[in-house]
């Protein structure tokens, strides 16, 4: 693998929860390299540690051991404030459930991280960037809506806008289509593909082989370790069917 | 069959309650602690009051104090007293004239021959009265309630002195008389039903008649008498007082006191702390109830799915409520039991002093019933309110609960969505950026969810009232300006020339000396002249202070103003007694002469039992007593030093700094108010910390997912804590500010109402706060308590795995 192009890397990353008896070892020494601009899909059985991997990489949770580098910078030694700044400026998140602040309208929710990151002079730039993103993902008309007044697909697209508003180098997504029906899923995945095409690095957890087929590389977690990995190349609409079947066969071999 | 079902049900409720108690330990512990504190203070206050009332009664039974008494200094006509007694034979059961020798504290000292220890009694009360034992009633008794008879050369000291100076039998009490020191051996201490109150300005020492004779001959004492009456079974003390004062020719140069007044004074001076405890507990109960309401509502929201499910399978609302109510009943019960047990300990400590000044109260059924009733009331109120809040269960609709997880019905939910949408459109983030966004978010949150936060400001407001009210009382009573509530102008020096052979001469010489002294200015003298006037029960004595009064430095007129010629100003209680208001005419009699004067004003005065009056005029001789006031010329001069000089030169002139006069009169009252203020402060702050913690614990639990979102998008733990802190401190500050305003307005009226009720002579108190304390230190303490609560409750936030906040 071309070292210069690696943007996100984990080494011997482990996470153990000591709150249980016996302690739960959720991640057991995960080595991971994500190239700049890559679309990595993380799959695995339920409880295999996929979400934990995302939270540990992004510093929301403290890994028990091992380390993470982003764009050459060691992250695990950072304090909470610096780590938060990394999340604010270099990472974006999309969750399965759309997590938004109920007291803010859709647009303000999207603006929140961008405004937090922007210096006073940068405010106007942040606002126009967000407006452009909303335009692009077709949610401009719901900008002044409350969170409870819009559909799940719209909310998930709003999540993507929020995640992108800070121009992150990595976009994390944890089962972003898990709560959506199939037409909404397609809608949201088109958005991801679009973002990827712009050159954004994406790390996405999913259970859905059809969604996973959108990625370039799939890794399979079991019991906190990477059991298998598979390069599947860039997604194109006309090869979608075949990629999906191919992936399914691979997954079936892994016991999915 | 049925009974088994009921039993099973009971067990189900208990098991549910138990599970909940274990699951939410922190919250339940905080609830219990507030309930324990409320119950504790309520029980302690009521126990102390019951014990005090019992102690007072017990000592009354032993000492048989008079139902009406009149103090008097100077000459009197014994035949007139006999005539009066004969005229009122049917009302009077017994009467006596007690002769007393009064010494000021400087004349008394004690020593212990064995060790050579000694000291004076300078810190004691104004009047030290030496008496012999009475034969019919008004006895001085020992610890066991026995009427003691000292042998010659022996003295029994008031129990208060014995305590304060640690006097033991065998110590020697030395009296400085006009012809050298006179020594008596301390035999023990006596309790005095008449002068037991810590507010009582005088104390009685018991000696043998031989020593009494000898002391009388030795000189240096002020002879005084108390004319005392025991009433027949259905006698009325007030009617007797009126009759006595209207009779004419009877000794009246001193304070009249009735039996009920004696009791009130005792209850006020020694029960004040207990009253304060009850007041504090009432506030705490309100806080506990608000708190419960908050928690119950939160629980219903959290468990709406379960409630919906129970409803869906047909469990009646009443039983669902009972499921929850069981837990709160248990908490309330635990609170009352633990609070009650703690109260037993506290009440024992607090009544110790009472038991020494008064008599050990007999233990009877009320001893147990009073605190039990108080506790039962707390329990019933708490459970009742919980039951009320739990009615909310009825309003929960199955579909909304199960599908939307909402306690609201269709209409309410729609209304809420509309409100939220409207709100969201009105507010924007756009104006802020960078770290300033944290403050913006905090404010938006508060504005949107103000209702959820309302507990904190209310609790802080109530607590602010709770702690500032007693502090304001203390500072008011302690303030130099408080003399104006004593019918006294704000002057530096005061002299009371009274009860001696040559009152006029002493007064003239004193006034001349003062006028010649450049250190003093504005020397003014007032004469006390006795009149009678018609009260509701017939003619009664009215002592009037007559003098030239161009102004009277800030006497507290509640209506009207200073008297001009032909006018009179009355104290509040006298205006009441003679049933007149400002502008009314009052006819006053001096022997056969009558004059009609118009009431110019009504002022507040707590001296002389609150019964005083003022007229304008020039009386230079023949008055019963004179009061002389003077101001210091320079600012830095020490009134104490000058007063001492004059006291040397005019030993019978009674020259004192005005402030000392206040301290002597009110010192004990101020001390107990200060104790009450401390109690309020300590408990207030404790409760505030507790409630803040409990509130934040619940609030943070509810805010977890929002905090998780913010953390994911890059807000640091420090910022999240900062938002919580901002919100908390904002509501705490708002609540505290509101509380301070409330204390200054409604609190002042409340204090005035309480003072009016006890008939002290104050009806309209204006607080003289200590601004540093009440408007700087206390608010800072409250904010600090809020800050502390935030710090404790958010301590875990930094270390937490933030993903837990957004995982389901
Ligand atoms: N705070 C915690 N304490 C103890 N164990 C935990 C904690 N959080 C997660 N786990 C455990 O860690 C394991 C991995 O959880 P994680 O959410 O990462 O799995 P996942 O692969 O994302 O599963 P899913 O596909 O269901 O989302 C699970 O067994 C879970 O029970
Ligand atoms: Mg997961």
UniProtKB/TrEMBL annotation, chain B:
UniProt xrefs under Pfam families: FtsX
Domain of life: Bacteria
Major place of residence: membrane
Membrane topology: Multi-pass membrane protein
Localization terms from the record: Cell membrane
Residues that span the membrane, as ranges: 29-49, 272-292, 328-350, 365-386, 452-471, 675-696, 728-755, 775-797
InterPro entries to which the protein is assigned, alphabetical: ABC3_permease_C, Membrane_comp_ABC_pdt
Annotated signal sequence range: none
Protein name: ABC transport system permease protein
Organism for this UniProt entry: Promicromonospora iranensis
């Amino acid at each position: 693998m071309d070292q210069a192009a690696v943007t996100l890397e984990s080494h011997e990353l482990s996470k153990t929860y000591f709150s249980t008896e016996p302690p739960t070892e959720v991640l057991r020494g995960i080595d991971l390299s994500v190239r700049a601009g890559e679309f990595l899909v993380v799959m695995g059985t339920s409880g295999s540690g996929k979400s934990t991997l995302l939270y540990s990489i992004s510093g929301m949770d403290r890994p028990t051991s091992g380390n993470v580098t982003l764009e050459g910078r060691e992250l695990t030694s950072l304090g909470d404030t610096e780590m938060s700044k990394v999340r604010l400026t270099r990472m974006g998140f999309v969750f399965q459930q759309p997590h938004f602040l109920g007291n803010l309208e859709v647009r303000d929710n999207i603006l929140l991280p961008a405004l937090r990151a922007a210096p006073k002079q940068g405010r106007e730039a942040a606002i126009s960037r967000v407006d452009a993103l909303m335009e692009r993902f077709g949610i401009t008309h719901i900008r002044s809506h409350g969170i409870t007044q819009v559909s799940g697909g719209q909310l998930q697209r709003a999540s993507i806008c929020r995640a992108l508003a800070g121009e992150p180098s990595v976009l994390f997504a944890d089962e972003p289509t898990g709560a959506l029906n199939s037409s909404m899923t397609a809608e949201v995945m088109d958005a991801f593909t679009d973002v990827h095409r712009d050159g954004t690095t994406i790390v996405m957890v999913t259970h859905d082989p059809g969604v996973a087929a959108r990625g370039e590389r799939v890794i399979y977690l079991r019991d906190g370790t990477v059991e298998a990995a598979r390069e599947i190349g860039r997604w194109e609409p006309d090869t979608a069917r075949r990629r999906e079947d191919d992936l399914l066969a691979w997954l079936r071999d892994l016991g999915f | 069959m049925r009974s088994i079902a009921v039993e099973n049900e009971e067990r189900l409720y208990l098991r549910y309650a138990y599970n909940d108690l274990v699951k939410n330990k922190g919250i339940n512990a905080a609830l219990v602690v507030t309930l324990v504190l409320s119950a504790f203070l309520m029980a302690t206050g009521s126990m102390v009051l019951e014990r005090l009332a019992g102690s007072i009664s017990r000592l009354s039974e032993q000492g048989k104090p008079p139902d009406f008494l009149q103090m008097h200094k100077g000459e009197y006509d014994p035949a007139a007293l006999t005539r009066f007694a004969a005229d009122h034979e049917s009302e009077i059961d017994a009467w006596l004239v007690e002769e007393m020798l009064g010494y000021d504290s400087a004349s008394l000292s004690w020593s212990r021959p064995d060790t050579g220890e000694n000291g004076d009694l300078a810190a004691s009360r104004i009047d030290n009265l030496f008496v012999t034992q009475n034969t019919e009633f008004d006895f001085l008794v020992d610890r066991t309630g026995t009427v003691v008879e000292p042998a010659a050369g022996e003295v029994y000291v008031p129990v208060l002195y014995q305590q304060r100076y640690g006097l033991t039998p065998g110590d020697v009490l030395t009296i400085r008389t006009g012809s050298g020191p006179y020594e008596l051996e301390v035999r023990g201490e006596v309790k005095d039903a008449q002068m037991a109150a810590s507010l009582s300005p005088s104390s009685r020492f018991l000696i043998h008649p031989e020593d009494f004779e000898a002391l009388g001959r030795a000189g240096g004492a002020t002879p005084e008498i108390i004319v005392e009456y025991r009433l027949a079974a259905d006698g009325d003390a007030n009617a007797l007082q009126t009759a006595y004062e209207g009779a004419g020719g009877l000794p009246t140069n001193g304070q009249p006191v009735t039996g009920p007044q004696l009791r009130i004074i005792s209850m006020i001076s020694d029960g004040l702390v207990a009253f304060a405890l009850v007041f504090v507990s009432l506030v705490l109960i309100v806080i506990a109830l608000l708190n419960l309401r908050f928690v119950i509502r939160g629980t219903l929201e959290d468990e709406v799915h379960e409630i919906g499910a129970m409803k869906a399978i047909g469990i009646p609302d009443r039983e669902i409520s009972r499921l929850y109510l069981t837990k709160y009943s248990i908490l309330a019960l635990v609170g009352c039991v633990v609070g009650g047990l703690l109260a037993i300990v506290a009440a024992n400590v607090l009544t110790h002093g009472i038991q020494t000044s008064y008599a050990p109260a007999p233990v009877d059924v009320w001893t147990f019933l009073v605190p039990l009733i108080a506790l039962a009331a707390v329990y019933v109120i708490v459970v009742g309110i919980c039951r009320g809040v739990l009615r909310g269960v009825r309003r929960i609709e199955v579909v909304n609960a199960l599908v939307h997880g909402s306690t609201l019905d269709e209409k309410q939910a729609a209304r809420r969505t509309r409100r939220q949408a409207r709100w969201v459109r009105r507010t924007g983030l756009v104006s802020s950026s960078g770290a300033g966004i944290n403050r913006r978010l905090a404010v938006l949150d508060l504005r949107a969810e103000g209702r959820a936060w309302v507990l904190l400001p209310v609790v802080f407001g109530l607590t602010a009232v709770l702690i500032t009210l007693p502090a304001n009382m203390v500072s008011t009573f302690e303030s130099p300006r408080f003399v104006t509530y004593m019918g006294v102008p704000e002057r530096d020096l005061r002299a009371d020339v009274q009860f001696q052979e040559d009152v006029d001469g002493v007064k003239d010489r004193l006034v001349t000396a003062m006028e010649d002294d450049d250190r003093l200015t504005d020397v003014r003298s007032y004469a006390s002249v006795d009149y009678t006037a018609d009260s509701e029960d017939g003619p009664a004595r009215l002592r009037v202070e007559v003098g030239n009064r161009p102004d009277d430095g800030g006497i507290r007129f509640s209506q009207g103003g200073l008297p001009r010629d032909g006018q009179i100003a009355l104290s509040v209680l006298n205006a009441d007694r003679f049933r007149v208001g400002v502008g009314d005419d009052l006819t006053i009699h001096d022997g056969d002469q009558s004059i009609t004067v118009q009431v110019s004003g009504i002022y507040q005065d707590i001296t002389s039992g609150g019964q005083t009056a003022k007229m304008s005029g020039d009386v230079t001789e023949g008055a019963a007593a004179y009061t002389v006031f003077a101001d210091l010329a320079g600012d830095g001069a020490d009134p104490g030093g000058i007063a001492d000089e004059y006291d040397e030169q005019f030993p019978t002139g009674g020259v004192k700094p005005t402030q000392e006069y206040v301290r002597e009169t009110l010192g004990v009252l101020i001390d107990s108010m200060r104790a009450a203020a401390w109690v309020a402060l300590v408990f207030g702050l404790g409760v505030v910390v507790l409630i803040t913690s409990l509130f934040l614990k619940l609030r943070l639990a509810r805010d977890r997912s929002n905090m998780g979102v913010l953390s994911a998008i890059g807000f640091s733990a420090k910022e999240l804590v900062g938002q919580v802190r901002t919100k908390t401190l904002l509501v705490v500050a708002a609540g505290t500010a509101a509380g301070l305003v409330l204390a200054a307005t409604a609190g002042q009226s409340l204090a005035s109402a309480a003072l009016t009720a006890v008939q002290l002579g104050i009806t309209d108190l204006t607080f003289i706060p200590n601004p540093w304390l009440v408007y700087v230190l206390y608010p800072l303490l409250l904010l600090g308590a809020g800050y502390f609560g935030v710090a404790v409750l958010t301590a875990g936030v930094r270390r937490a795995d933030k993903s837990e906040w957004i995982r389901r």
